[in-house]
């Protein structure tokens, strides 16, 4: 962003001094007669270096510019800024010699972001410059005129082209990135942002002439005025939809959400009215668009302020990025009525501010994406973890265990089934709060002993389960024995004589095993540990005399 500001300040240039006069065009006017009237002082005087509004109705307006000494006979360029839709004709005393227009890409030199006409060194530097501002429909922005050497013009032109290419590249890049995130995250907020930034870039590319040169999209010239109006309306609609979701108006400013959404619907309706062939609808749309734009801008500003004051983090991003554009729009509107004639930089500043806004809002969207991811992870953790102990619940553990079995082909896998000894007695003697505290302490101890890659879950009331990847039989028994000792060292009293302990069954995965069969064998081994005295680990070893179908479950063992 600092680079863009540096380029923008580099646009400032020194121009040759001019004074000027103007009057409205009348039937029967000739260039020689207008120049003669200027010499007699019969034209309204103005300062060409400042912005000035000229009437563009009826036959248009004559403008005469007079270079001031010192005069140097060299190649020089007349530039008209800001460029506006509609033609400006350059005359000499004998008649027209050139026509300048935004959509005209023929004939050097080409003024990017300005209308430009080149005077060769053979034309005396003191020669009067005669222009005719051809009539246009609608409002015409105020204009300023500059005369500079060809060398200064080319340097200024190259600087402008670099600056605006960078600004438009930033805006379009941010819009494309937002579209990608919209597809990946399935969040319309990113889509509305992309639409808004793209429409704003299109508006600026039309108003500065960037769309016609260097992009040379002259096929859009006949519909440029309608395209600009449609882009303005759609940009406001997309901005309203974007800020309603981005600033979370439903949560932080619910009363203002409905008017903002109504604005988003109303602007496209005006576009349809403007593009219709029904004169009444076209006139109504033209009459309504400017008031609605002003009211809409103020409404979105108010909504963002209210949302920010009520705690919307992202509303601050919107205010920081969007407020400079609103201020520049207000300045440009004031200039239409003749105010602030020396602030000719507002047009260029709007493009730089657009790039700034795109960057700020993209940072805000990145923050939104991270917030969404954090919230999603939090919800997932609440859904997957046992609310008391914090380890995986039974459903989440089963899903993770199945994935581990599928991904550990060729490696040994051990399953440990853990059941706390005499836990029912602890609950009966000390109450369920003491039992909950015991479960929490045991879960923390088990988690501390196991590796981060081991799957630990709460399988039932006092039952825990763990799956260890890449662990052979001897290692699995060592881990199980260590867990038994760790739980016993917690010294959680069951009654006056007994401490809480754990019995663990261990089963090693075979090629035909599933999660269910592994659990069943580990459960049977745990039962054997219970029968043999508790507080120990036992590897699954099925007695030959007992069939698999008749092997008792742990729930059948008396606590």
TrEMBL record:
Transmembrane segments: 160-183, 190-212, 224-243, 255-273, 285-308, 315-337, 349-370
EC number, UniProt record: 2.7.7.65
Catalytic activity from the UniProt record: 2 GTP = 3',3'-c-di-GMP + 2 diphosphate
Domain GGDEF residue range list: 411-542
InterPro entries: 7TMR_DISM_rcpt_extracell_dom1 (IPR011623), Diguanylate_Cyclase (IPR050469), GGDEF_dom (IPR000160), Nucleotide_cyclase (IPR029787), Rev_trsase/Diguanyl_cyclase (IPR043128)
Gene3D superfamilies recorded: 3.30.70.270
Domain of life of the native organism: Bacteria
Assigned keywords, A-Z: Membrane, Transmembrane, Transmembrane helix
Ubl conjugation is among the record's keywords: no
NCBIfam families per the UniProt record, alphabetical: GGDEF (TIGR00254)
Identification of the protein by name: diguanylate cyclase
Organism in which the protein naturally occurs: Frateuria flava
């Amino acid at each position: 962003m600092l680079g863009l500001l540096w380029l923008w300040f580099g646009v400032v240039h020194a121009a040759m001094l001019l004074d000027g006069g103007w009057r409205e065009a009348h039937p029967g006017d000739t260039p020689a007669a207008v120049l003669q009237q200027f010499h007699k002082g019969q034209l309204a005087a103005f300062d060409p270096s400042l912005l000035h509004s000229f009437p563009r109705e009826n036959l248009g307006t004559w403008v005469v510019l007079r270079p001031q000494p010192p005069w140097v006979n060299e190649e020089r360029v007349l530039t008209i800024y800001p460029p506006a839709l509609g033609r400006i004709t350059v005359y000499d005393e004998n008649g027209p010699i050139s026509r300048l227009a935004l959509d005209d890409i023929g004939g050097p030199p080409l003024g990017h972001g300005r209308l430009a006409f080149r005077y060769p060194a053979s034309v005396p530097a003191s020669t009067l410059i005669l222009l005719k501002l051809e009539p246009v429909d609608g409002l015409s922005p105020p204009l300023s005129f500059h005369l500079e050497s060809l060398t200064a013009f080319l340097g200024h032109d190259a600087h402008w082209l670099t600056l605006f290419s960078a600004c438009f590249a930033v805006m379009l890049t941010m819009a494309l990135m937002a579209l990608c995130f919209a597809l990946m995250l399935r969040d319309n907020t990113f889509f509305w942002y992309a639409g808004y930034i793209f429409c704003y870039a299109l508006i600026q590319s039309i108003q500065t002439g960037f769309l016609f040169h260097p992009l040379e999209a002259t096929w859009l010239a006949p519909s440029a005025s309608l395209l600009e109006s449609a882009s303005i309306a759609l940009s406001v609609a997309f901005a309203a939809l974007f800020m309603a979701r981005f600033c979370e108006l439903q949560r932080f400013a619910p009363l203002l959400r409905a008017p903002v959404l109504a604005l988003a619907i109303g602007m496209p309706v005006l576009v349809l009215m403007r593009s219709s062939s029904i004169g009444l609808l076209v006139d109504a749309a033209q009459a309504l668009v400017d008031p609605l734009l002003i009211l809409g801008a103020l409404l979105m500003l108010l909504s963002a302020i209210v949302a920010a004051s009520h705690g919307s983090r992202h509303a601050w991003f919107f205010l920081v990025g969007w407020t400079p554009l609103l201020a520049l729009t207000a300045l440009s509107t004031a200039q239409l009525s003749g105010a602030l004639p020396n602030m000719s930089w507002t047009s260029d500043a709007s493009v730089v501010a657009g790039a700034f806004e795109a960057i700020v809002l993209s940072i805000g969207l990145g923050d939104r994406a991270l917030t969404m991811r954090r919230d999603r992870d939090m919800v997932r953790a609440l859904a997957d973890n046992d609310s008391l102990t914090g380890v995986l619940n039974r459903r989440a553990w089963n899903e993770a265990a199945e994935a581990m079995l599928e991904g550990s082909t060729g490696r040994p896998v051990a399953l440990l089934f853990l059941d706390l000894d005499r836990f029912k007695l602890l609950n009966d003697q000390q109450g369920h709060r003491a039992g909950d505290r015991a479960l929490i302490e045991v879960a923390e101890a088990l988690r501390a002993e196991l590796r981060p890659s081991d799957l630990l879950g709460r399988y039932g009331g006092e039952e825990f389960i763990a799956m260890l990847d890449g662990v052979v039989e001897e290692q699995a028994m060592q881990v199980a024995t260590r867990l038994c000792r760790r739980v016993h060292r917690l010294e959680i009293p069951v009654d006056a004589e007994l401490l809480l302990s754990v019995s663990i069954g261990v089963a090693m995965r075979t090629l035909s095993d599933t999660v269910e069969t592994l659990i069943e064998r580990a459960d049977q081994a745990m039962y054997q540990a219970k029968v043999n005295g508790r507080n120990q680990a036992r590897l699954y070893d099925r007695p030959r005399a007992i069939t698999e179908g008749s092997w008792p479950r742990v729930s059948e063992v008396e606590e």
